[in-house]
Amino acid sequence: MKHTHVFQRREKILQLLRQQPQMSIEQLAQQVHVSDWTIRRDLAALEAQRQVQRYYGGARLAQEARQPDQFEMHAQQQAAAKSAIGRAAAQMITSHQFVALAAGTTTTCVAQALRGRTALHIMTNALNIAQELSREPGILLTCAGGEVHGDYYTLTGPVTERALSAHYYDLAVVGISGISPERGFTVNSQANAASISIMLRNAHRKMVVADHTKFGKVSYAFLALPAGIDILVTDRPPPPELRRYLEQAGMQIIIASPPDSDGTAGQQPQRQPPLR
Questions:
Q1: Domains in the chain: ranges and CATH
Q2: Where are the beta strands (DSSP E) in 36-156?
């Protein structure tokens, strides 16, 4: 729990610096409610990760971290693949299910593909997913509270975790930042990993949605081993070594079909036969 608080505090510092180009040590300490010494230590760690640039008495956001709209930037990457994955995942969600839908660009595509559906109960920790589904009369929507991270529309922290822990789900649908045989499934935020882990823990079945660019990558925070996940929905077959690793863990791999040239949905998603 101590490490979780550290990561949440450092993400809060980054959020403050995105809102204000540069801040003093004293300002940050007042906003985050910790000592000047703790802020200096956090800034040193963030500078080592190339997230901030320190100067005498304060810090500014590093150039690498200055992105005008991180969610939109990531949503545009592999957009067609994510849309196909979203449709394929939505086809596997049936009426009368209670579904935990985690924050992320690919899970947002799942939410978009669920519009028009009926007799579903969705729990999410994403503000944009809540907005996507808020006017769907056939969907009972619950949005977890918590600390808002405007760059990804994510809700995290103790309030979020308590809300997610209080419910049990037929299915959890989550996105990830990396899949590798060495480290399993990883995400780019420790705070978000804590929320997603609760969704997975409280779900009867667990689905990961991820495009092929996540294959072989290791991101910041550990999420789960393949043995804890039932289904992977992706847009291309994983490389043989990774595919064998996932199949040995008992995971079902679904390959989403891209849209046809006229923009309509393609063929039904393909279940990959196991490697011999």
A1: 2-65 (1.10.10.10), 72-271 (3.40.50.1360)
A2: 52-55, 58-61, 98-101, 120-124, 139-143, 147-149, 154-156
